[in-house]
Structures are given as structure tokens and as C-alpha cells.
Amino acid sequence: MSNQSLPTLDAAKLFDNAVISIQLGIEDFSLATSPSDAGGNPHRALSSVRNLFAGMLLLFKYKIAASVNNPVDAYTIIFNPPSIVPESDDNGGVRWVPDGKFKKTTIDVQGIEQRFKGFGINVDWDAIKQLQDCRNHLEHLHPKHTYGEVGGFVADLFPVLSDFITNELQQVPMDVLGGAWEKMLAHKDFYNEKLAECEDSWQSADIPDGMQTYLDDCNCQMCGSQLIKAADEDLALELTVKQHKDKFKYRCVSCGYADLIAPELYHAFHVANDYDPRDGSEPIYETCYECNHDTFLIFEQECAWCGATLEHNTCSICGQPLTQDEQDNGGLCSADQYTREKFMRED
């Protein structure tokens, strides 16, 4: 069978579609973040994320397709292959045959990652997975306001596209994306400037040391933005998160919404230390006996909120780690304490 009868793929079309999709995504982003009296429409945020993520994946697929010389090979590595199923060979044996023709669907993120490994193409997959999670969140949960979260999405997408276009495609991002690149660059600079301001504002808020790490995972409950700063009015009153958790608020730079920061810190802590007892996982945290917050990390034997630690860390007899419940045993675990009490009763 000649190659002319097999399906082929023009890689250049993937490239053109990728550029158009990213440019449309930036146009949607501009509309989503513009005031309504200037023609803005916050509902364009979702289409912005869809177009930008799709454009990024198309660029990835273009690189894969452009890695081979034969358009037939380009087709086979971009489209999903047929399933291979067993059937009888009519002689008591088995033969494996394709189940139908190539599916008319292209490879997904997992397929792209597999091809990248096979062809030695590099990209920051941790960043890609975060972008994918954000896209999925916006698509499936449909929050009322999304422009705040989209701002973070565009800022995080910028270095991914910059590195990929420069290092893997050997092209200049500005030449590829034109005006859309200028808008992304301006937004990235603005976003980083505001993010730094937000981070600085929390320095005076006295967040418990053990909870500081979870601040990066907090976002505005109104618009989803991570650009949240310590409320100026609370700082002016010399309130602190540690001492006034029921009063201290964050204020969103993106939409102006304000709410308590403590619940967001708790939520981020619980998400980061989540466990599923159904698969046999053991609890990672419990209620702290000192401050009564559900923030005592069992393995670390320390409370993330108040910093309380155990007086006795390990059993003086068997060396097992001790729990909060075992602190009154004089440095013994429950089993060794029981044994000691039993001998004392017998004496």
C-alpha cells in the first residue's frame, strides 16, 4: 500500500491554529478584565482560558509533528492509535489485530507528555499540570466571577510559552504571537508587581510561622485571584492574624472583596495535608490540645498554628513516637505504660 493512500498531517496548520487560538485567548482576557463601560465582559474569562490552554497544546502537538519528516508519520504520532485486541488464529492460538482505524481524536495531555519523553522535548510539566487544574476548575465549577483566577492563569502561562517557543521552537515569542505577546508581558509584569506588594503586606500581619507556607495557596473567595493582601484597615488598628483570627481580613487587589483570612489558611492547610482513610492512609493532622485548632501535624509532632510541641517525643523504652494523648505517661508509650502499671499492681 502506498503512502498516498494513508492519512497525512500538515504540521504548519497546527502551528497557525495554535497562534490564532492564543491570540484569541488574549483578546478574551482583555475583554474579561476590562470595565463593563469600556466593553468588558467577565464571562469571556472562561473562553480565554479555553483558547489559551488549547493554543498551548496545539503548539506542543506542532513540535511533535514537526519532529518527523514524513507527513504520514506526523499523522500517526498526533492522532490516537487504534486499539489492539486479541482474536483466534483458528489454530488454537491468538493473534493481535487493530480494532478499527485510527480514531479521529488527537492525543491529550498525557499523550503529549509521553511523546515529549520519546522525542526528547522539554517543558515544565508541573506548571502544565497546574494550568490544567485551573482550566478544569473554571470549566467544570463555573464560578460566578473568574477574572481573578484567569489573571493568575495568564501570568503562569507566560513563562511556559516563553521557554517553549524560545528553547524548543527556536523562535522569538514576539515574532510568533505579535501584539498578544506584548499584552501577556505587560500583564506578567503587572501581576508580579502586585504579587510582591501582597506578599510584603503580610509581613506585618503576624501569621503563625507554621501557617505561612499555606498563604500561597489562599485566594479570593469572590473572584479566585491569588492577589490578596492584608487589609490596610486591620493593619492600621494593629490587629494580627495570630491574635485576632476572627477579625483579620484579606482584601483582593483584583476585585476589592474582603473577608477573613483564617478560614482560607485552614482550608489550604487541610488540602495540603489531606488523607483518604479508604485507601488505608493514616491521619496527618489532629486537634491541637494547646490551641484547639485542627492543625497539629502528627508526624512532625508540632502544631502549625500555635507552634506547640511535645514534651516527650519518643518512648524511653521502645523508641516509638509518642502522641499528644501519651504525654502524661512520663515518656512512655501506651503499651509500655500499661506494662509498667501491670507490674506495679502485681507487686
Describe the model:
The chain has 347 residues and is mainly α. The protein folds into three domains: 3-83 and 102-196, no CATH class; 201-262, no CATH class; 310-347, no CATH class. Helices cover 46% and strands 8% of the residues. It contains eleven helices and eight strands. It has helices spanning 11-32, 44-65, 71-78, 109-119, 125-141, 147-168, 173-177, 179-201, 232-236, 262-272, 334-346, and strands at 83-88, 94-99, 228-230, 249-252, 258-260, 285-286, 296-297, 302-303. Strands 3-4-5 form a three-stranded antiparallel beta sheet. A three-stranded antiparallel beta sheet has the order 6-7-8, with no helix packed on it. α1 packs antiparallel against α2 (44-65), α1 (11-32) packs across α8 (179-201) and α2 runs antiparallel to α5. It is flat, with a radius of gyration of 28 Å. The relative contact order is 0.07. The mean pLDDT is 88.
Query: Rg from C-alpha positions?
Result: 28 Å
DSSP strand content: 5-15%
User: Assembly state here?
Assistant: single chain
Helix content: 40-55%
Biggest sheet record:
3 strands, antiparallel
Number of domains: 3
How are the strands of the largest sheet arranged? 3-4-5
H and E string: HHHEEHHHHHEHEEHEEEH
Query: What structural category characterises the helix and strand content?
Result: mainly alpha
